[in-house]
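Go through this one:
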Amino acid sequence: MKDNKGLLYLMLSGLFISTSPLFAQHLVKSVPVQMLMLLWFVSAAAVSTAIVVIYQKLNPLTYFKNNWKEGLILGFVNALATGLWFTSISLIGASLTTFLLRFMTIFLIGFGIIFLRERLGIQEIIGAIIAIAGAFLINFETDNLLISGTLIALLAAFVIAVQEFIGKIYVARIKPVALTSMRTVFTLPFLLVFAAATGSISTVSSGNLTLIIIGSTLSAAIGFIFWYKALETTDVSKAAIIRTLDPFIVLAYAFMIFRTTPNIPELIGGTLIVAGVILSELKLGKVKDALKILSL
């Protein structure tokens, strides 16, 4: 029963969070990135905080006051990750960015080695090599824009890995819904300063504002609530292998909405990244456990 709930939360988190690159890919064409990020998280903060009050019957101000240090850390890291993520999407699109972001798992393994003194086995090494080969294959044509977007996406993956590492620590004592609200609310001051410093504060059309509200609600609020709920009921390694398949959800969304697909080297490279990540992160027994959950 617990595995069934965990699978449901994982599937929902993947479906909701995977909508965000598509909204971003459309919106960056007409809204300055700095302003887009700010409005995105204004909307996400309002929705997630309302959920805290209505769904959990909690006083968000109490959580903000008692956990403001954690909130500032999470907010700063998330603001940095958000900026890199939006920039990468504007350069290389939603599908490739999402494939490259899977490198966050490789970085999380590195954190385990550094901070938890975990041993690096031959399986993890081979998986990392396969994933790196996939990244090189994506950049086979040596297009400068593609290379720049890839490097930014990899840096975003590193920062997101830091955020996931921190989030897993905090979720042990902070309710997932409240943690989601904290993440969005404490991201706002950093994005506001960034937008003001770059002179990017401007008005947006009502149509774009509507899309921002819908996109941020689906992904940054609802999607992350389901993700944190999944972390409460499912082993993180099993959750990771299932969520590793998110790029293929984005690929399907991109085809349905934009009728776009990566070229053959990019598609093979992205698939290699996913395969390498799965191999490097999870032992065979964990893979079988994850497949068992998917078959329930």
